[in-house]
Amino acid sequence: MKILVISDSHGRNDDVERAISQVKNFDVLIHLGDIERGDDFIRSLVSCPTYMVLGNNDYRLDLPSEQIVEIEGYRFFLTHGHRYYVNRGTMYLEEYAREHEIDVVLHGHTHVPTLFQEDGLTIACPGSISYPRQSDRKQTFLSIEIDREGEIHFSFGYLESELEKIYADLF
Ligand SMILES: [Mn+2]
């Protein structure tokens, strides 16, 4: 079971499309908000279950502001994160997660890929697929894999450039 997690595309659905075609084999798509437009278009790009939540810049989209979903026995809390002041840290998210028996919190908003793990709780941000703010300025996404033993694994990826794509196809 593989989950592709993206966030903060801010209308750049071409980047969303690139991430989807680069990662290819995933079973669930998650967008953590600041979509701005084209949520229906994003859904049309995949045939798998898709979860999207509202960001602080999503005014006209008909989506939940946050959501708890269970995937393969793990309880995920999906939120953009601005209401939990994620730019100042994840303590409010941690508090929410402990109260609601969440295993994995996924949030956006910071535009910086981060992973925090403590006492069975994971709090992760995929970074921004379009407007990265971390020092290397790579457009990042998060890939989550739940293996046959039920173990969960987190790994970050970034959008490949055209040149990297040519190399990837060659070898
Ligand atoms: Mn935001």
Kindly describe this structure.
The chain is of the alpha/beta class. It has one domain (2-170): Purple Acid Phosphatase, chain A, domain 2. It is 20% helix and 32% strand. The protein contains four helices and ten strands. The protein has a five-stranded mixed sheet, covered by helices on one side. It has a five-stranded mixed sheet with strand order 4-5-6-8-7, covered by helices on one side. Strand 2, helix 2 (39-44) and strand 3 form a beta-alpha-beta unit. The longest helix has 11 residues, at 13-23. The mean pLDDT is 96. Bound molecules: manganese (II) ion. The site of manganese (II) ion has 8 residues, from loops.
Write the SSE topology:
Blueprint: E1 2-6, H1 13-23, E2 28-31, H2 39-44, E3 50-52, E4 66-71, E5 74-79, H3 91-99, E6 104-107, E7 113-118, E8 121-126, E9 140-146, E10 152-158, H4 162-170
Parallel strand pairs: 1-2, 2-3, 5-6, 6-8
Antiparallel strand pairs: 1-9, 4-5, 7-8, 9-10
Manganese (II) ion is lined by residues 8, 34, 55-57, 80, 82, 109.
Report, as a whole number of angstroms, the end-to-end distance: 26 Å
Estimate the helix proportion, in percent.
10-25%
Order of neighbouring strands in the sheet with most strands: 3-2-1-9-10
How would you sum up the global shape? globular
Strand elements, count: 10
The count of helical stretches stands at: 4
Q: How much strand? A: 25-35%
What's the level 1 CATH class? Alpha Beta
